[in-house]
Amino acid sequence: MIVTLTPNPSIDRTVEVEAISRGAVSRATGGRVDSGGKGVNIAAALAAHGLPVTAVFPCGGSEGAQLGKLLQDEGIPSLQVPIAGPTRANISIVEPDGTVTKLNELGPRLQPAEIDALIAATSEAARGAEWVVACGSLPPGVADDFYALLVDRLSGSDTRVAVDTSGPALLKALTTSPDVVKPNLDELSEATGIEIATLGDAVEAAQALRDLGAGTVIASLGGDGALYVSGSERAHAEAPVESPRSSVGAGDALLAGFLASGGGSVEAFVTGVAWAAAAVGLPGTRMPGPDEVDASSVTLHEHVVADRVLGQAMRLEATAKSEVRGDGKGSGL
User: Fold this and answer.
1) Facing residues of 217 across strands?
2) How far apart are CA 200 and CA 317, in angstroms?
3) Which of 141, 183, 196, 320 is a good FRET partner for 27, with 20 to 30 A between their CA atoms?
4) C-alpha–C-alpha distance, residues 303 and 280, integer Å
């Protein structure tokens, strides 16, 4: 059993457009509404593979009711903590080349009693669970040590903890030695103060997070794949995506696949990269099922090329696409 905690879940509306023109009307070519929030996405990915999972999150207002119904319709077990404020709604605008523009609401302000209830509900759901995954931004009213308090609460159990957040909340969580953290490139740089231009820089920054308390670091690198740093092991993996639809939720799929395979090996990391690549090829925040994941598409580099410049693959792809279109516009995942 894996329990996910999303303190700031959302209703995610994805709108597909040919192009965005500021100050003008942009006609939608497609769209969808999904349950959203990092932990909710991870729960959806695990449920799509038939794995036992429970999603814990605060729920309020008509948006919260819609979120609960979406999860019920998708067959995702959940434990909803009632709150006074309405669950937030986010918008993602997706262009044909996979470029995503996101508009995220702050979320409801949680009261102290609601925060306590959320931690208590997660601790109760975690009894006997193999993993608790604590993910995402913190809503107004929630202190930076929220995830640290949760990890402390679970420290006397056999349940392992993965954390995917950023900024002060990540730094506070690191003081409690979580088993896994999953930053993206910007979050990795922000947390360590290291300017990351190459894979070697990313490895240095990931090790710095381990020095601060993390057991294993999985860093998503966008078009350059992902990085795995644990103990003395270092690995880099990537997978091509022929027709990218949306990168929103790809990092959540990465972590879900890693934990679904045990969360403790390079092999599990490769599975996570395969899940992430599959997610990029799907619309909105939809998570891939077993038939949509191709592990053979993943290239594993057990020797990390330290001087590889990050972002180069995306720039080459952008150049190739602009040449095909003949419009001089770049693109990227």
Assistant:
1) 181, 229
2) 22
3) 320
4) 25
pLDDT score of 329 more than 60: no
Place of tokens 């090329």: 305
Q: Find out whether 97 and 331 touch, Cβ atoms under 8 Å.
A: yes
Question: Of 3, 7, 27, which is closest to residue 15 (Cα–Cα)?
Answer: 27
Share of the chain above pLDDT 70, in %: 93
For tokens 């990168």, what's the residue?
Answer: 247
Ordered strands of the 28-36 beta sheet: 28-36, 10-17, 88-94, 100-103
Of 138, 92, 99, the C-alpha closest to 115 is 138
- What length is written for the chain? 333
Domain boundaries, the chain: 2-321
Q: Kindly report the CATH class assigned to 2-321.
A: alpha beta
Integer CA distances (angstroms), 83 to 56, 150, 207, in order: 13, 19, 38
Q: pLDDT per residue over 254-300, tens digit each?
A: 999 999 999 999 999 999 999 999 999 887 678 889 999 999 999 99
Confidence grade of residue 313 (pLDDT, cut at 50, 70, 90)? low
Q: What percent of the chain has pLDDT over 90?
A: 81
Q: How far apart are CA 33 and CA 304, in angstroms?
A: 39
End-to-end CA distance of the chain: 32
Taking only the tens place, the pLDDT of each residue in 9-18 is 999 999 999 9
Residue among 212, 141, 142 nearest 173 (CA): 212
Q: What are residue 207's phi and psi, to 5 degrees? A: -65, -35
Which positions are annotated as active-site residues? 252
For 89-112, give one letter per residue: b (16+ CB within 10 A) or e. bbbbbbbbbbbeeeeebebbebee
DSSP strands (E only) in the chain: 2-5, 10-17, 28-36, 53-59, 78-82, 88-94, 100-103, 131-135, 160-164, 180-181, 216-220, 226-230, 233-238, 299-301
| C-alpha distance from residue 301 to each of 150, 197, 228, 295 (Å) | 35, 18, 10, 14
